[in-house]
Amino acid sequence: MGNSGFEKYKRLPSGGFALSGPAEMAEALRLQNWRIRREEERRQGEMATGERIQTRRLATTSTPSPSPPAPVWKLRKDSKAHSKAAKSAKPSKAALQFVPGWDLAVGIEIHAQLNTPHKLFSPASPSAHAPPNTRVAPFDAALPGSQPVFQPGVLIPAVRAALALRCAVQPASRFDRKHYFHWDQPAGYQITQYYAPLARDGSVTLRARDGLLGDEVEVVGIQQVQMEQDTAKTLAQPGGVQWVDLNRAGAALVEIISRPTMRSPAAAAAFVRKVQGLLRGADACVVGMEEGGLRADVNVSVKRAGEAGPLGTRVEVKNLSSFKAVEDAVVAERDRQIAVLEGGGLVEAETRGWTVGGTETRRLRGKEGEVDYRYMPDPDLGPVVVDPRLVEHLAERSGMSVDEELDELVGRYGLTEKDAVTLTGLDDGNRVQYFYNVLEALETLRTGNWGEHHAPHQPEPPQDPETLSRLAANWCLHKLGKLTNDSSLLAMTPNGECVVPSGDLATIIHHLHEHDITAKTANALLLGLFSGDIPPGHVRQTIDEQQLWFHEISRDEYAAVADAVVADGDVKAVLDEFLKYYQQEGGKKQYPEGKLMFLVGRMMRVGEKAESMDPGSAEGVMRKRIKEVYVPRMMRGAGGGGEGEGKAEGV
Ligand SMILES: Nc1ncnc2c1ncn2[C@@H]1O[C@H](COP(=O)(O)OP(=O)(O)OP(=O)(O)O)[C@@H](O)[C@H]1O
Ligand SMILES: [Mg+2]
Ligand SMILES: [Mg+2]
């Protein structure tokens, strides 16, 4: 790969690599990648939660610089100090979950826009981007004489939503009018399903991977799912004027009502996030909370711990538009109620509001001010009769639920739970399809190689698909993620293709896995594909033409490089740390991994050999030689370095 190619990479909108030239890049990238890999492995094994954030940042801002990056041990130390300071300023998430002596009960109502081209009772198609008041049928504006016409297409996403929440779809449901007077409601009432909703009695299962703290599993009951109209959008203007946009008025929503069984703020947020994922996975609702497609009201009550009898008085906090707002509002409202009760007062049933970034809920209206909705069946609308065959048909075609897919990814493909969750959540669920495409192409590459023997019954190649799929996940998530901060530049499609074709990424991963190319080469190839420097389908050709195949040096040569590094007098203090480690009793002192990485870093910078060295191999050799050669020599009193070792001893 010539200079011109690398020059090009500099101009990429890349969050990850700012390559300067082949020579610097060669060692900097390799060293950096290896550090990240090492650090990631270790992180999984032994690090505390607080430190993770810092290391992750290390991994995503890997801009190689001519001077060696700060040693990882230092970053870890800094991050420890950092997380300590943060802790003293703010209580931890875990500490916020429970208040001793008190039980919390949370029930949630979620309003979600259905994925349908029409409004609930008119053929107008609501759109968030259309100019105001351009998607309005006469009925949406409640013009006299206009009538509601139920749009049967709405039933498909609505039933899908009910099924995703494991509800029983009712054979017949009805529409009711809920009356209130407000400028966001042109008819003076909202059409909803009060007496006979679309579906009842479902459940949503929450686990640690959904955001619960600890290992418990919480099953949240779904009381009912009902179809209803959205309201108009209003925009407050100076002088008490309200601008009203009817584009949203009458759009089809489902209201999902949970039972009041959530016990912690984290469970409340996890529930809303999970419902969003389930609805999205079922194709029932495709606009998420951030884009305003999903809103939640939380109902909060508290009771003295262990007290029998009914739940405490419910207070409803309306219109929360982020997962964080859900969690924060529950914490604030719970604490407010506890303070009232501990002060000898009584909690009043009321409706409250929440301001993003706030610390307290604020009163909107009390029970006595609560509107009497005067629910009544809508005389203009007949019952919705759902043919059980439609329900069956949709259930059969519903595919895997998010939970089942996560179980697959973890159980069969060996991904970490965290990677599985991220993979399924990215690019509206399209990233995981890309991952499957890459795996499929890898399989073809793998079996294709075997196929050259043309034997009728090939045994399964002795490969470890788990390692391979974990490697593939790493590339589909982290390597691809590092190309750009703006994931829309990847242009991921619903069938799982993007500007880096899945087959080409598979070729890179395949050769990396086979140790045919170095991680540095693999990174550069990915960048080449992303920048358009390497045309689709030309990965192998590029490796051939630019002679990027990896020819690794021998173990003895590695040993010689290691010896040259420790022969340098200024690593004496570093070597002393290993001596201390091996001389200690009781195993209290931890192995100086950071120092080891420092030495390997030095190895990787030994001039002309660097191109043919693999950091993992270098690490293995250095670790072994420290234990078997350098430390014993220091114990014998010969000193760790400085006297310029000659020939390498065998490793
Ligand atoms: N004591 C309680 N503590 C916490 N949550 C409760 C309590 N009692 C009921 N809830 C929850 O309050 C919610 C009530 O929602 P529902 O839609 O039935 O009535 P609503 O809030 O009066 O109606 P809307 O707000 O739609 O006009 C449910 O999620 C339910 O689980
Ligand atoms: Mg409700
Ligand atoms: Mg409510």
Q: What is the number of helices?
A: 19
How does the overall form come out from the CA principal axes? globular
Largest sheet, in brief, is:
9 strands, mixed
Low-confidence runs: 1-29, 43-84, 450-462, 639-651
Query: What is the strand tally?
Result: 16
Strand content: 5-15%
In the sheet with the most strands, the strands line up as 2-6-7-10-1-11-12-13-14
Work out the count of structural domains: 3
User: Kindly, what is the distance between the CA atoms of the first and last residues, rounded to a whole number of angstroms?
Assistant: 34 Å
List the bound ligands: adenosine-5'-triphosphate, magnesium ion
Radius of gyration, in Å, reads: 31 Å
Mean pLDDT score: 81
Structural class: alpha+beta
Helix content: 40-55%
Protein described:
- The chain has 651 residues and is an alpha+beta fold.
- The chain folds into three domains: 90 residues, no CATH class; 293 residues, no CATH class; 131 residues, no CATH class.
- The protein is 41% helix and 14% strand.
- The chain has 19 helices and 16 strands.
- The strands form four sheets. The protein has a nine-stranded mixed beta sheet.
- Strand 8 and strand 9 form a beta hairpin.
- Helix 2 packs across helix 14 and helix 11 crosses helix 13.
- It binds adenosine-5'-triphosphate and magnesium ion (2 copies).
- This is Glutamyl-tRNA(Gln) amidotransferase subunit B, mitochondrial.
- It is found in: Mitochondrion.
- Belongs to the GatB/GatE family. GatB subfamily.
- GO terms for molecular function: ATP binding; glutaminyl-tRNA synthase (glutamine-hydrolyzing) activity.
- Its EC number is 6.3.5.-.
